[in-house]
Task: structure prediction
Amino acid sequence: MLKRKKVWLVLLCIFSIYLTVPCVQAKAAPAKKKAVQAYKEFLANDKIPWDANWEVPAKDCKFSIVYINNDKIPELVLYNTSVPHMGGYCRIFTYKSGKVTRVGSADMDSGKFYYYKKKGVFISCYANGGVFDNYRKITKGKIVHKLQKGKEVFDNKTRYYNSNRKEISKSAFNKQLKKLVGSRKKTSAKFYTNTPTNRKKKCR
Result:
């Protein structure tokens, strides 16, 4: 009798898990759909709020929709080389509380945006007196600096730094990076010109 009860309990647990998974997926799908639709409308505006008190023509921005963190909602990444270099060529937006919200900036001097899918980590490449890859993480809606790898022009030597900008060894850098992203490989985002056709194709 006890064995039969145990079997029924196991079957009941399996059945409840089976019912829960589609429910979670169903909730995630509308969230993504709302976010992407909001991005589509956001990109269709004449101006994009690049910073708090600064707008840029939307037509000057290229866009990419990617999953940087693991909250089921994709991020909108914009690339614009018509802005001053100092301010950074890239802006990251997310969909929160029913509206498109700016998360922060990235440099993108290489013309590429690399990220570790669903790990929250992306690389901000800055070129000035050398080339520096800054590894940053989106944490609680904010961008936090984690690691840096850079090669300066004067000696062409690659150096590694931790979150406090203190120089560390290559092995220590790799160890800390693994803690952040595990075995996940970086992905290069693909950008599209901000046209009605591309918005229709990619914002869905």
About this structure: The mean pLDDT is 89. Residues 86 and 107 are 8 Å apart (CA to CA).
